[in-house]
Amino acid sequence: MSESGRVLLDLFLLFAAAKLAGEVFLRLRQPAVVGELLAGMIIGPHLLGLVSESEFLATFAELCVVFLLFVVGLEIDPTGLWRVGRQASAVAVMGVVLPFGFAMLLMKALDRPIGESLFVGAALTATSVGITARVLSDLGQLGTRVAHIILGAAVLDDILGMLVLAVVSGLAAGALSGSEILVLIAEALAFVVLAIVLGRSAVHRFSPGLYRMTRTSNPSVLFALAITVCFGFSALAEVIGLAAIIGAFFAGIIFAEVREAPELRRSMESIYELLVPIFFVLMGANVDVPRLLSMEVLPVGLVITALAIIGKVVGCGLASYNLGLREAMAIGVGMAPRGEVGIVIALVGLSKGVVSSDVYSQVILMSILTSIFAPSLLRVILSPPKEPAAPEEASSPGEAES
Amino acid sequence: MSESGRVLLDLFLLFAAAKLAGEVFLRLRQPAVVGELLAGMIIGPHLLGLVSESEFLATFAELCVVFLLFVVGLEIDPTGLWRVGRQASAVAVMGVVLPFGFAMLLMKALDRPIGESLFVGAALTATSVGITARVLSDLGQLGTRVAHIILGAAVLDDILGMLVLAVVSGLAAGALSGSEILVLIAEALAFVVLAIVLGRSAVHRFSPGLYRMTRTSNPSVLFALAITVCFGFSALAEVIGLAAIIGAFFAGIIFAEVREAPELRRSMESIYELLVPIFFVLMGANVDVPRLLSMEVLPVGLVITALAIIGKVVGCGLASYNLGLREAMAIGVGMAPRGEVGIVIALVGLSKGVVSSDVYSQVILMSILTSIFAPSLLRVILSPPKEPAAPEEASSPGEAES
Which range of residues forms the domain containing residue A134? Predict the structure, then answer.
């Protein structure tokens, strides 16, 4: 069979497995992304071997993730961001600092190289807002103070996570002197600031004129412009030594507040539905499952998972302790699922050769476990006051973790 | 820069060039696809060299074209097809037979191998319905008898073209005995018939149950199912020795008549807008422009173009001669633009190693020229009766070809 025939067969298997597993996990009230990762582990080269490793798919995955991060950026409402307030900002910052610090300490204790430690730290910073938002919505608590703080902080977290990744992916290039590190940090920050400031003003100034000039319809022009900027920023970020996804993420943010953003989000929906499930299955397929389950790799993976949860619960909890223990706990647990962004950061480290295959697998494990346990735990914490008639059932930890 | 960084930079250039050139050509009242092909020729490796040849992009192009043909199939209204009638069927069949025959005769006269001749013949059969439909719509003539016949016949043409390609791509695999040829033809026809009959009944029987079972929304389930079938049929077509696009095309037809087809078409719009312009720029970039313009390659390219136009005008004209000379001419000319499908067939031949680079370039030239000239000529033929005050201007052939 030709190369393209093999790729189509792989894509068929990947996509079908993703959709099937995603659906099964949705029925189990679990995030679809967990199902997709597990499906990838099962059909990947290390277990069933239905999908083989291929250079095309590796590059294709990096293309998928560019669209994933573009959409993540696009869903951030920058005007809403200013209203997030002090409490959510404190939660976000503490929820980045503590897990990052914990990871660095663990990796130092394990004697791992500094570059790898930085990536693990970065992977532990970002919160997956989608997973927690669904739990809050299921419980009918999207309008509460806890929900507002979690969602605001999670958005800030994505931005902080990308900033951390920008610096880390520069640093990880090699052992650097102090002044080189400063230059790198300055470069990363300059990219982000220029991208947002110049990009935003350019889009705002030129797009209305562009609409008038062109013969195609407005949504279509905006779509073409957005995709062009997304590719352009991603390539630019790679050229200056950052990761492509950082460019894609900030390209998304630029377009998040244009007047036609809702149409643009709708246009991106089917691209997202096509590419992102394939991406997560591929990320699962990267995991060497037998090795992950070995005594050399699994314990550290579980420790990383524990630190990921403790870091958020303690960090975010401390920053919101003034709200009382229950709300502080809910916020800490609500910030714990890592989902997409942690995986994406691990992938960047893996493809730059800085993160080893073992550590990559441990981070995927951490993403899966935090994405499964945190929502269940959050349901337990938030449910009792809603249904005081049956507190025993809802607070059984056994059920929560099933 | 990393492999993925280079790919992103290429995609940025390809997409930006596609959208810019497409827009310019729309303003010149020319099909966007012509602008995209020319843009590819200019930025491709043979002229400016801004985009280099890469294995990834070659495979990516074959992925893009799968979605292109899926959408082409999806836009075919199978229930409307039964109403096309005898006249349009005759136009379609004659418009396939004559250009195919002309191409075979020319290639025989040039002493080219039989496999290559078959592909050139196949590339000359299919009509690009989109280009002519736009002209008819511009002239406000979409409701006329001529328009109905052209659009009906063009749809049949796509199906006949894919059937021809199915047989040809099997045949071109090598010199075969008479019985092997019969087996191949039977296999191709069996694939198509089974795909449509079994696929249609499966989709109709199972999709309502699927909607009820799943937790995601109906359009989203249908989208997942359609993409799965599209990948599956494409891979299957490759496995049995046909081209992936044949599977994609018939997968599209299967979903063209489900109740939610309009939502599915809308979902595919942004995927189409993302991938198809990139595809055409890549197809342009494959053309060795200096060589195409050399005296060895250009004259044959022009002869192929002439035969492509004469074949449709004579074939379709004869089949509709009973409508009078003017309408018969309009139908013949309206069927002449080859656009997408001719290019796609040439690509299949090129990637199977059956079509030489020179002949590929000649087919692209034919697609470009028929897509430019046929609409202009059609405007001339159809305009006079609309504005009888200025017949001189509109019928100047000089203007028509500008």
Answer: 3-384
**C-alpha–C-alpha distance, residues B159 and B151, integer Å:** 13
* Residue A398 resides in a domain: no
Q: List, for residues B155-212, the tens digit of each pLDDT value.
A: 788 888 888 887 787 776 655 666 777 777 787 788 888 877 887 788 777 777 766 6
Retrieve residue B253's tokens. 């037809």
Distance CA A167, CA A173 (A): 10
- Contact (CB<8Å) B269/A268: no
**CATH at A216:** 1.20.1530.20
Residue A240 Cα, gap to closest chain B Cα (Å): 9
Q: Taking CA atoms, what residue in B is nearest to A65?
A: B4
Q: Are B337 and B131 in contact (CB under 8 A)?
A: yes
Tens digit of each residue's pLDDT (9 = 90 or more) over B221-270: 889 999 999 999 999 988 877 788 888 988 998 888 788 888 899 999 99
Do residues B231 and B52 lie in contact, with contact meaning Cβ atoms separated by under 8 Å? Answer: no
AA identity, residue A186: A
Query: Cβ(A166)–Cβ(A241) under 8 Å?
Result: no
In chain B, the residue whose alpha carbon lies closest to the alpha carbon of A267 is B270
Cα–Cα separations (whole angstroms), residue A198 to A58, A79, B28, B158: 32, 17, 32, 47
- Summarize pLDDT for A237-247 with one digit per residue, the tens: 888 777 888 88
- The first and second tokens of residue B358, run together, are 């020179």
Cβ-contact B352, B172 below 8 angstroms: yes
Which pLDDT score is estimated for A259?
80
For residues A129 and A142, the answer to whether their CB atoms sit within 8 Å is no
- Residue A42 falls within a domain, yes or no? yes
Residue type, B115: G
- Of the candidates B243, B271, B274, the residue with the CA atom closest to the CA atom of residue B347: B243
């608590």: which residue's tokens? A141
Residue ranges of B 70-109 with Cβ closer than 8 A to chain A:
none
Tell me if A1 sits within 8 A of B238, measured CB to CB: yes
Alpha carbon distance B321, B13 (integer Å): 47
pLDDT tens-digit readout, A155-200: 888 888 888 887 787 776 655 666 777 777 787 788 888 887 887 7
Using CA atoms, how far residue A24 sits from A121, A196, B93, in Å, is 31, 39, 48
Task: Tell the residue number behind the tokens 């507002």, with chain if given.
Answer: A148
Select the residue from B270, B273, B350, B351 to test the A interface by mutation, using most A Cβ atoms within 10 A. B270
Assigned domain for B284 exists: no
Cβ distance A215 to B26 under 8 Å?
Answer: yes
pTM over 0.80: yes
Q: Is residue A258 part of a domain?
A: yes
CA A250 to CA B317: how far, in whole Å? Answer: 56
Rounded Cα distance between A226 and A203, Å, is: 9
Asked if A18 and A284 touch (Cβ cutoff 8 Å), the reply is: no
CA distances from B163 to A66, A87, B90, B190 (A): 38, 65, 17, 11
Largest pairwise CA distance in chain B: 65
Question: Given a cut of 80, is residue A41 above it in pLDDT?
Answer: yes
Structural domain count of chain A? 1
* Residue A122 per-residue DSSP state: H
Q: Would you say residue A394 has pLDDT above 80?
A: no
| B357 Cβ under 8 Å from any chain A Cβ | no
